[in-house]
Amino acid sequence: MVETPPLAKRALVWRRIPWLNLLGVVAVVLAGTALVVKNVPNAGANQILNVSYDPTRELYAAIDKAFVPQYRAHSGITVDIKESHGGSGRQLRSVLDGTQKANVVSLALISDIETLSKRGLIAANWQQRLPNNSVPYTSTIVFVVRKGNPKAIHDWPDLINTGVSVVSPNPRTSGNGQLSVLAAWGSVTTRGGSPAQASAYVKTLLTHVAVSDAGARGAGDSFTLAKIGDVQLTWENEALREVAANKDELELVYPPVSILAEPAVAWVDANVADPNTATYAKAYLDYLFTDAAQEQVAQYGYRPFKADILAKHADRLPPLALFPITAIAKDWSDAREQFFGTNGILDAISAAPPGAVSGI
Q1: For the packed helices 7-14 and 216-224, what is the interaxial angle rounded to 10 degrees?
Q2: Membrane spanning segments where (predicted)?
Q3: Domain co-membership, 295 together with 249
Q4: pLDDT of residue 267
Q5: Are residues 96 and 123 in the same domain?
Q6: pTM surpassing 0.85?
Q7: Could you tell me the pLDDT band of residue 327, with boundaries at 50, 70 and 90?
Q8: pLDDT tens-digit readout, 8-44
């Protein structure tokens, strides 16, 4: 297992580095934070690798533990499932360049898998191969604050109040980071604001980011363990986990509006040429859509796509006002290109001097 660098070292690298300065330090991100990989697979029978995004470690450990004996009872075969976790953007690049021979991907954004499809690694019809357009669960971006909420952070505008320090992952490497930008933008435009006002808001928000790790879990460590920042922008499941582990120190705040995040899954056609491997990969992903797996999804703080199971967990996963990606872009791929592509909105905001964003 490749270990993440010690927290103290990571905090030293990232402390007080706002997003606006990140364009020149992407190499530091890639060099300074290792992928967390559980037993990268060696050549062998009955083995698949799931390349996933940063905070799904606990969920897929539970999924694997349940799936393996069930599949063995059904088929007589014991499947050995390996897991790799890191920032979703970084995981995507590792599959694209062949560093990780993923048989299955479970990534933070539909656009991550669309990128693999456009490069010929996954079939064009991948969303039609599994239920619910291959989205087994949804999530959103919420706030984690210090106990008592001393900075009175309840809504997106509160994040840019004087003296508020924000922790959120790097949008160049993290799905959480990208979703935070998209949620921030949509918090303006879906409530009647103009694109120019959204640009000005997001630009100001970026100047409040005190630390920006490569992935969601690293950002959580910076906030909870290194105690950097007043508020963390993070996945709902990460917020639930962090608050449960730090009840005397942290609180979860649901903003009035946020984005509907749609993590997606697919088998990687280019890496399942062996018929047996393909069978295991497909069975593994099929399992995610069963009632048993959907219960596990809810228990680990993700929102099951099955409405009846989600309703059973309304005490921890309350109904929310979440806007779809189509409220701010044509689809997830358009959002990636529009906001995070070369010369996209993030580049323009990052490069623009103060007061120069009104034309975006």
Answers
A1: 90
A2: 19-37
A3: no
A4: 98
A5: yes
A6: yes
A7: very high
A8: 333 333 333 444 444 333 333 333 333 444 444 444 5
Residue 167's domain comprises 10-28+141-259+329-351
Here the tokens at position 131 are 């239920």
Q: How many CA atoms lie within 13 A of 194 on its CB side?
A: 7
Q: Is a pLDDT exceeding 90 seen at residue 146?
A: yes
What string of DSSP letters covers 187-213?
HHHTTT--HHHHHHHHHHHHHTEEE--
The reply to whether 222 and 308 lie within a common domain is no
Specify the pLDDT at position 292. 98
CA separation for the pair 238, 244 (Å, rounded): 10
User: Which residue, chain included where needed, has tokens 């999924």?
Assistant: 63
Instruction: Let me know if 99 is exposed, middle or buried by CB neighbors in 10 A (0-12, 13-18, 19+).
Output: middle
DSSP string over 266-281: EE-GGG--SHHHHHHH
Exposed/middle/buried for residue 229 (C-beta within 10 Å: 0-12, 13-18, 19+): buried
Letter for the amino acid at 355?
Answer: G
